[in-house]
Amino acid sequence: MDKFKNLTLKVLKWIGISVVSVLFLMFIIPLLFPGTISQQVKLIANKHLAAKLDYKKTHLTFFKHFPSLTVTIDDLLLKGSAPFQQDTLLTAKEVSAGINLKDLIFNRTVKIDEIYITDSYANVFVNSKGQANYNVYVSTPSNKPADSTGKGASIKLDLIKFENIHLKYIDQAAKILVDAKGLNYTGKGGFSKDVFDLDTNLDINTLDFSLDRIYYSQQKKIHADLITRINTNALTFVLRKNELRINELPLKFTGFFSILKEGYDLNINAASEKTTIRDMISVLPPQYLDWGKNSKIEGNSDFFFSLKGKFIPSKNLKPNLKASLLVKDGFVSSGGAQVPMKNLNMDLSVDLPSLNTDNLGLNLKNLMFDLGKNNNFRAVVKTKGLKEMQINADIKGALNLQTLQQTLGLENIQMKGFINTNIQSNGIFNLDKKLFPITKGFITLKEGFLKTKYYPNPVQNINIDAKINNTDGTFKSLGVNLNPFKFDFEGNPVFVTADLQNFEDLLYKVTAKGTLNVGRIYKVFAKKGLDVSGLIMANLFLDGKQSYATTGQYSKLNNKGTLILKDIKATTEYLPKSFYIKEGNFQFENEKMWFRKFNATYGKSDFALNGYLLNTINYFIERKGTLHGKFVMNSNYILVDEFMALQKGDNTNKSIEVDYAKAENPKSSGVVIVPKNLDVSLEANVKKVDFKGLNLNDLKGLASISKGQVYLKNTDFNIIGSKMNVDARYQDETPLTANFDIALKVQDFNVQRAYKEIEMVRKMATAAKDVKGIVAIDYKLKGDFDKNMTPIYPSLEGGGLVNLRDVEVKNLKMLSTVGNSIGAKAFNDPDMKGVNIETHISKNLIHIDEFTFKVSLLRPTISGTSSFNGLLDLQIRVGLPPGGWIGFPIVVTGTQADPKIKIFSKTGQGIVDALYNTKSNKVIRQEKRAEKKSRRQQRRDQEAQEKKAKTAENKISTDVKKK
SS3 for 188-244, per residue? Predict the structure, then answer.
């Protein structure tokens, strides 16, 4: 017994010593290797990252992820790879790396086998050109033999663990958005091996997924238990065990996913078999989920999905998508419903080859349900294509809307009325070819009533009697009859009848009467964004034929009546802010829609229009119609900057091109986008126009918008106290680029004010800094605007004449340097009054024709080339008295800030012009100093450049169209 007791004490003693030793080592080791760890972290970062990495501090501990020794980086910030160096790729409260203790103690090397990331935000981005911000890891190939000693820092992962991650992935090339919040991930496997199995456990609190702006998942909870075989050589992921749950819906995945050089290769199959309708409903948008909790829902469902093929945007390759949904023997009944929904059955399949919506195939083989006797709905619909759609549809139903509302337990809406429909359609729908399926059908609604929780008053007495008929599959036999559509809202009745026949040459008869409070009707349907209580008042009678207007037979039209709008908000997809129509009084007279009184604002800008639009009915009928008109426009103030496409504003319904451009260029303003379907002339009278800090006052002239271009003709305005006359043309190309032509004339231009107040003058005429007085300008230019609507100087071409009417030039550095070199101080104050200077601009160079002026008794003549970036290659002939017939040459090179003078020389040093790509709007090469050439070769080069510039200048006159 004593021996056992002694043995026990010895064992406990050694266990105690071991525990104390381990604890001692756990405290002492982090103190022994802090320098090694910090140095190795920096070594790994500098060696393997092509992006900026910042962090607050690093520290070692055994207790963070016991029993691993971990190095932890606090408050990490990692920027993206080029061209996203200023954008955040990853932030994290903590990033920890588990270190191999054996290698650290015995070899003093850091080998990382575990990674932990906590409270992180990852912003992964691929722009529309396919450039990604995540290419931050740089592998460093070496011709040296492999390091067999094992020294240095290395990564050999067996475990990755993420806690509370917000991952946002935007791929604009593929039009994909993934937004995962509350992501927790554990991955185990031999990450350093070429081929390994990754055991994954994944939970996401909310997941959003959209493709081409269509959301297929919103705020979904995800749980995944996955085993994926990963081949790092081929970047291929094979799905071996993949059990996924979206809310309550289980899904099983099989297939593979490969990352290619220019895209992806996919073969993914997903299935959710023998699940319930309730499970399927759990993946509906979040606003519908509460509805299912209080309803009795029975029935079975099956769901299948596949995505197969290569996705390579540069080669226009996209995978094929197929999906199907089967619902059987459904039963739905809310708590207070007297009649349940029975026999709910649906069989739907979707086929989308190459993700091309023009080839979209939908096959609704069956959709049916019953709501008691004489209350049922049946539909069979099959379509193929989108632009040219083959349709075969049979839809029948008779429903009591109040019974439907009670059965479904819709608490936020009250419905009443009897709806009945019977539509059969078979054939091809194509707007361009004017084809319409052979169709016969009707839809009626009697004694309708609609009230929502969002607004206290209902829309009531809703009656609709609509019939559609087509006998031969063309637009010619298509007829639509609406007799009537009427309802009451807050004591105001609205009444519309319409008889439309022969859509090839539309014969129409429409009557519309009533007053509608648009702001309040929007509240009924909980629509956001209309924050004014707008009114529409109509008393219209339209009777005519489409061809009467297009062929000028206006006397056969009988369009009359009024349409009044008050406090209406309107948006367009290309403008960042909303238009507010304070008052619009429109009168219809046959072919014209007169603007009798129209006042509107846009941000700080205001407009008052009087005039007419022509053929407005054709515009609304024709899918590609153009709206014609003629107006007088008066305005107190227009701020051009707030029309630029990427500026901040309240409009959330912008085009995808504008949204993507803004995402890629968050600090840019973009350019002004001009509507392509307008052909409108304006007699403009604007008191003040502001454009990028430039003030134009009392603008008067003719403006027109045609085919996406804006023209100004014989337009006058005051700028810095001078009256300027311009002819101009402007056209946007993308939300980030535009081009322009301008021909301008100004008689009394104050040089010093222009230099101080106009950035373009400071850029194009740096010498104006040392010039005081008045000049006259007759100049023509064409070029491009960049993403901030600033001229791209290498794109400018043109030229013209500057007359130094009454100027004083003092201490112009280039002339002063010449004067100092030849001992003539008079060059500091030359007499240049009345001198004409003709120049031609091309590829960032300014070519100066010969001009002569007076310097005391001398007659200098200057010609040559300078650049917008200050390079000089000028030739000066200093004419001596009497009359300047005899003279000597001087060459000026260097820069405007540091001119170089060579007396008695004719050989300068040319300037190689810039290269500019007009298609991509990119400067390929800036101008630079040329290699030294003979005088003869320089003269030939200069003559060739001047000829190109002169040709471009002459062409501008034809480009500035006379509209």
Answer: ECCCCCCEEEEEEEEEEEEEEEEECCEEEEEEEEEEEEEEEEEECCCCEEEEEEEEE
In whole angstroms, what is the distance from residue 171 CA to residue 262 CA?
A: 13
- pLDDT at position 533: 61
Burial class, 934, CB count within 10 angstroms (exposed 0-12 / middle 13-18 / buried 19+) = exposed
What is residue 674's three-state secondary structure? coil
Q: Do the domain assignments include residue 685?
A: yes
Q: Which two tokens stand for residue 496?
A: 């519309």
Domain count for the chain, please give it. Answer: 2
**Alpha-carbon distances, residue 814 vs 292, 842, 871 (angstroms):** 82, 22, 12
- Convert 167-185 to b/e letters by CB count within 10 Å (16 or more is b): bebbbbbbbebebbbebeb
What's the rounded Cα separation, in Å, for the pair 122 and 127? 16
Q: What is the pLDDT of residues 822-860, one digit of tens each?
A: 878 878 888 888 899 999 999 999 999 999 988 888 899
Q: Which helix (H) or strand (E) is 24 found in, with range? A: helix 2-32
Residues of the chain predicted below pLDDT 50: 19-20, 22-29, 31-33, 63, 142, 144-153, 529-530, 961-963
Structure tokens at 939: 């003269």
Q: What single DSSP character describes residue 41?
A: H
Residue 471 amino acid letter = T
Closest CA to 170 of 180, 184, 160: 180
In contact, 240 and 246? CB cutoff 8 Å: no
Residue at 935 is within a domain = no
Reported as type and span, the H/E element at residue 704 is strand 694-706
Cβ within 8 Å of residue 24, ≥6 positions away: none
| Alpha carbons 120 and 117: distance in angstroms, whole number | 7
**How, if at all, do strands 627-635 and 678-691 pair?**
parallel
d(CA 738, CA 644): 11
**How confident is the model over 343-382, as pLDDT tens digits?**
999 999 999 998 888 899 999 999 999 998 889 999 999 9
Range of the domain at 49: 29-134+154-233
pTM, whole model, 2 decimals? 0.74
Contacts of 147 (CB under 8 A, 6+ apart): none
Whether 938 maps to a domain, the answer reads: no
Residue 430's contacts (CB-CB under 8 Å, 6 or more residues apart) are 387, 388, 389
DSSP state for residue 871 in the 8-state scheme: B
Task: Pick the last residue of a domain from 176, 200, 233.
Answer: 233
Q: Vertex 923, ends 124 and 87: CA angle to 5°?
A: 20
CB 318 within 8 A of CB 309: yes
Token output for 194? 């070429």
Are 776 and 747 spatial neighbours (Cβ–Cβ below 8 Å)? yes
Structure tokens at 397: 């139903």
Helix (H, G, I), strand (E, B) or coil at 762: helix
Does residue 146 form part of some domain? no
Helices (H), 251-362: 277-281, 289-293
Instruction: Dihedral sign for Cα 805, 806, 811, 816, please.
Output: positive
Angstrom distance (rounded) from CA 914 to CA 916 = 6
Nearest to 737 by CA among 800, 672, 689, 794: 672
Which residue, among 229, 228, 223, 230, has the nearest Cα to 201 in the 3D structure? Answer: 223
Q: State the pairing for strand pair 678-691/492-501.
A: unpaired
**Tokens 């002026």 found at:** 853
Rounded to a whole number, what is the distance in angstroms from the first to the last CA of the chain? 117
Count the helix, strand and coil residues of the chain and give each as a percent rounded to the nearest 5.
20, 55, 25
- Residue pair 956/743 in contact by the 8 Å Cβ criterion: yes
> Domain boundary at 233, 255, 271, which?
233
Token pair 């491009």 in the structure block, residue: 784
Q: 627: Cβ–Cβ under 8 A, 6 or more apart, which residues?
A: 613, 615, 616, 619, 677, 678, 679, 680
The H or E element spanning position 423 is: strand 413-429
